[in-house]
């Protein structure tokens, strides 16, 4: 089973707005440069465990609809756009997806030019256009080129949960069982209706109901709607992070980052 999140992509129309919001809530983004397509650029928020949050937006003069990565999400300022798992062999990951009956786009070579002039290169593989599924990445250059060192924070560990909004939870769970051998979902108290975790994996599922998630699915389709960062203690995390009210998460606690861009989209959850 694939269980470890490499990074997640949080998109919008203006990178400076995403970076400013991150700074306001106590996260520390580092400008990462322009992708090889020339249509998007990004900033990195690294975490102590090596995972990171990618803030991504169109480059100056590029319409969001023409962006090389997740144009619908960027154009809609939808925030959570994609999630990524690391692989040692991109071709083997592609074959596993094909064996599971899924269409595959890749592996493709990709790159990003850092502001210091260093070129970051990797292979990436997408499983069709289904945004519920993660994509895979394999570094061609040292991973340290792609991911800067994190600011040390005793309370923060790294990315723990991707919440996927789906119109049919059973069908989505079956997809992940077939492709990744993930277990059946278990209902818990959480931030959304129809909320369930897949034990031992980084995935949680929710069904839209009649509110904002339904509108989100109608606008950009099924896919990630929120990302949660693991913290050792919620009260301790508040010493360095700006967080909203406490929410029950099974027998633990969570909170959204206290900013309009992140509310209901990016939060923290206590580790078990």
From TrEMBL:
The Glyoxalase-like domain, residue ranges: 5-178
Record-linked InterPro entries: Glyas_Bleomycin-R_OHBP_Dase (IPR029068), Glyoxalase-like_dom (IPR025870)
Annotated Gene3D superfamilies: 2,3-Dihydroxybiphenyl 1,2-Dioxygenase, domain 1
Q: What is this protein called?
A: Glyoxalase-like domain-containing protein
User: Per the UniProt entry, what species is this protein from, by scientific name?
Assistant: Haloferax sulfurifontis ATCC BAA-897
């Amino acid at each position: 089973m694939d269980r470890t999140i490499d990074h997640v992509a949080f998109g919008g129309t203006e990178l400076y707005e995403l970076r400013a919001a991150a700074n306001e809530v106590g996260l520390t983004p580092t400008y990462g440069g322009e992708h090889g397509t020339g249509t998007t650029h990004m900033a990195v928020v690294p975490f102590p465990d090596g995972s990171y949050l990618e803030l991504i937006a169109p480059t100056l003069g590029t319409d969001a609809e023409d962006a090389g990565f997740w144009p619908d999400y960027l154009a809609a300022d939808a925030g959570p756009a994609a999630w990524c798992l690391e692989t040692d062999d991109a071709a083997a990951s592609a074959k596993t997806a094909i064996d599971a009956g899924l269409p595959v786009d890749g592996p493709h070579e990709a790159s990003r030019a850092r502001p210091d002039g260093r070129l970051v290169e990797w292979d990436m593989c997408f499983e069709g256009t289904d945004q519920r599924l993660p994509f895979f990445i394999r570094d061609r250059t040292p991973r340290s080129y792609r991911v800067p060192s994190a600011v040390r924070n005793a309370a923060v560990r790294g990315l723990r949960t991707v919440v996927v909004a789906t119109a049919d939870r059973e069908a989505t769970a079956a997809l992940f069982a077939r492709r990744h051998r993930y277990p059946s979902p278990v209902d818990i108290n959480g931030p959304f209706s129809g909320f369930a975790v897949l034990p031992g994996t980084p995935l949680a599922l929710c069904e839209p109901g009649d509110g904002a998630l339904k509108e989100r699915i109608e606008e950009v389709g099924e896919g990630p709607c929120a990302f949660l960062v693991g913290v050792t203690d919620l009260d301790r995390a508040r010493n360095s992070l700006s967080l909203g009210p406490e929410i029950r998460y099974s027998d633990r606690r969570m909170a959204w980052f206290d900013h309009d861009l992140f509310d209901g989209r990016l939060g923290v959850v206590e580790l078990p």
